[in-house]
Amino acid sequence: MNPVHIPEVIEPDEKLPPDLVALRRFADLMDEAFLVPGTSRRVGLDPIVGLLPGIGDIVTGAMSTWIIIGALRHRVPVKKIFRMLFNLVADIVIGAVPLAGDLFDALHKQNTKNMRILMQYRNRRLPPRRMIEIAAAAILVMIIVAAFAVLAMLTAIASVIWITQQRLT
Fold it and tell me: pLDDT-based confidence at 117, cuts 50/70/90?
């Protein structure tokens, strides 16, 4: 007997809390805002801003923490929060690699993935937490993301310096 696949239910915006509507629009802006001419592929601001050397991935990574904070607010299980954090850190670290990282950013679409996790695993039976209730966890998430972003940037800079020195000798 074949297993039955039930697609995830996508709730219309009018049935969602306003903060989830804003997060969904943000994820679309970051990952799927623009149609690539001549293709059916869509890209958002994440890979475009990521083209800025050094700061692009830091900026988009910092902005993308908003979805993880939304997941904390809507009581997504901790295991799924860690998965979302992994998606974001992978996007930052791999995105810091010149050219290959930008292609990864365009294909990985971590904001959309994280938004899908939030929508699927949020606790609909309990009201969202207040920001004061999740402040410590939100600050910890921002510190982790900032640390990986700075580490990725420093590694990229060190790599460029090393490659330049190898070519000069």
Answer: very high
Annotate 82-137 with DSSP letters as a single string: HHHHHHHHHHHHHHTSTTHHHHHHHHH-HHHHHHHHHHHH--SSSPPPPHHHHHHH
List, in order, residues 6 or more apart from 147 with CB less than 8 Å away.
Answer: none
CB–CB of 46/30 below 8 Å? yes
3-state secondary structure of 43: strand
Confirm if 135 and 87 have CB atoms less than 8 A apart.
no
Quote the CA–CA distance of 96 and 28 in Å, as a whole number: 22
What's the confidence (pLDDT) of residue 97?
79
How sure is the predictor about 14, in pLDDT bands with cuts at 50, 70 and 90? low
What CA–CA distance (Å, rounded) separates 132 from 129? 8
Give the pLDDT score at 10: 60
Distance of CA 135 to the CA centre of its chain: 19
Cα–Cα distance, 3 to 21 (Å, whole number): 32
